[in-house]
Amino acid sequence: MDWLPTITAGFETIDADKALKAKAAQNLVTWLTHADFAAYRPQLEKLIEQKKWSVLLDSFYQVMPFGTGGRRGAVGIGPNRMNLWTLGASVQGHCDYLKAKFPALSELHVVLAFDVRQFEDKRGVYDSSLPNPVLHLTSREFCQHAAGVYAANGVHSHILAPDSKKYVATPELSWTIRYLKAHGGLNMTASHNPPDDNGSKFYDERGAQPVPPEDQLMSEFVDRAESIKFVPFADAAKNGKVHFLDDAPHRAYIELSRKQAIIPPPRAGEIRVVFSPLHGVGGFCAGETLEAAGYKYIPVPEQNDPNGQFPNVTKTPNPEVPECLDRAERVATEQQADILLATDPDADRIGGKVNTQADGKGGYRYLTGNEICSLLAHFKLSQLSTAGDLPPSPLVITTEVSTGQQTRIARHFGAQIINDLLVGFKYHADVLHQLDTTGQFGDIKATPADFIIGTEESHGIITTPQLRDKDSAGAVLLLAELALSQKRKGETVVSYLDAINRQFGYFRNEVVNIVMTGIEGKINMTKMLDTFRTNPPKEIGGVPVASFEDLRDENGRMGPFKGETDKAARNFLIFRLAAQNGISAKVCLRPSGTEPKAKAYIETSCEPFKVGSTQAQWDATCKNVDAEIQKLATSFLTTALATVGQTPKPGEDKLSR
């Protein structure tokens, strides 16, 4: 059958770029007629019969972009969905890249990890009565398919055995690559995305995701991959190209994490800690670390088992979202716990709530990612300083969009700080790599041994330079130690945070998500950012913009582009506002690298508490900081949407509190 006329006519009913519609039609015809895609044909024919042209256009107008180290998105049928073909093409490109990078090596090795996900078509895209190759597809099966591609290319894979009940979390993957001296790695995970999403994250030999220009080179190899070599997983194992991980790397990782402790362990019954992996893999890293360090945690029974549908989680399995901690808070209240902690599905992020009373009889206060950053940076610096254990050139690393309070904290303890990194822990890892190889990063001179902590506002923490990705294990241990230290003084984490705010100034940080889905959303996102870039606002919420910085400016501080991936990462605008009435403010805007939205990071802050001021005056100042951030959020969202002829929906400017 000649499908092209029918498809072309169908796409004409959609208002979209003609070139994109033509590309989608070409790709769809290929998937309908090529033998390699025969298994997908019944579902595609049904979608055409049902005239689901929007779904088909979005699924076929492009090959899912290989972003800054991998692909992530909805599982489904088509080149713009996660499936065995898009994964296979990525892995084939990775194999070609590794061979070019290590031409003298006869044997190449990679470590493979996976989360708990399983595709069940929760969005109801496909016909349940027809065969569907992606239905019930798990992250484990994705990984085993990848091992088959690696094996066909002569690359050895290290992966958990098929009957293993364990999981390798994201931070443990970073560790295992380094432990085994592998040449790279792959993690099949969509982190905290909805259950029907999945993704592939590729790692280099340092246990980190590659940074420009290496990620650009890898991306080019992926784009050039035309034919995918493959052998079945069972055959790859028989042929000696697949190696099943034993427990040695895991034990070493847990021991490394346990050694990050900086205060004496708790006595029996001294502190009550509730922990939930939110149905993810956190129990195998953060949970085990807590126990190894002497913190016998209280589980949240209905969330303890790995389950890729996250059935007992409110809203989303993301500790950045307070609602997902409701069941943990119920257990904490029943047990009068001092702190409750949670990890996201791949266990690189943490979140939690702390009791407002030292006796465990109070309510619970949620900790934002930025508050966790400040708390842990201050606590670790303070403890090391008091013990006389600060290294010669202590170093704190954070990002441009994380709270500026950390800069004041670091400088108070005489620490150096790198506070202007792009978003993503691969940039933290790059700092550590440059310090390891040259002893310098920009104007900073140090060694990895000087590293204190690395933070990111999106609940990411790293506490040791021996890992090169954010790590929930070291972070939960440090946060539990802070709670224990405070309890030993008859105080709380809340009082510790209040003291930090008074000493260094109250900072309020919020993220406003500007959601733009589908092809039209992608076009509007580009238009919005380009409009701001060429015609930045002179004021936001009535406050003058004192300076504007476009990180894509090749004459600016970041210099010439290192490739297209670098250009994409630098799609980042910074508006620094004039200080008014004792309040400073900043707005950063960037498109998300993993979700169809732009993120506006807004910060307002005041100076430290002045000696002689009253509590009422301090409370009024903090209230003004809160009021100012709401005003800026509403104004900026309105201005941003106006660039594409839209207005905010009711409540769209609502902040976290």
UniProtKB/TrEMBL annotation:
Residues 194-207 have a biased composition (Basic and acidic residues). One of its GO terms (molecular function) is phosphopentomutase activity. The keyword Magnesium applies. InterPro entries: A-D-PHexomutase_a/b/a-I, A-D-PHexomutase_a/b/a-I/II/III, A-D-PHexomutase_a/b/a-II, A-D-PHexomutase_a/b/a-III, A-D-PHexomutase_C_sf, A-D-PHexomutase_CS, Alpha-D-phosphohexomutase_SF. Keywords: Isomerase, Magnesium, Metal-binding, Phosphoprotein. Pfam families: PGM_PMM_I, PGM_PMM_II, PGM_PMM_III. Coiled coil: none annotated. Residues 136-225, 252-351, 369-493 form the Alpha-D-phosphohexomutase alpha/beta/alpha domain. Residues 188-209 are annotated as: Disordered. One of its GO terms (biological process) is purine ribonucleoside salvage. CDD domains: PGM2. Its cofactor is Mg(2+). Belongs to the phosphohexose mutase family. This is Phospho-sugar mutase. It comes from Limnoglobus roseus. The lineage of its organism: Bacteria, Pseudomonadati, Planctomycetota, Planctomycetia, Gemmatales.
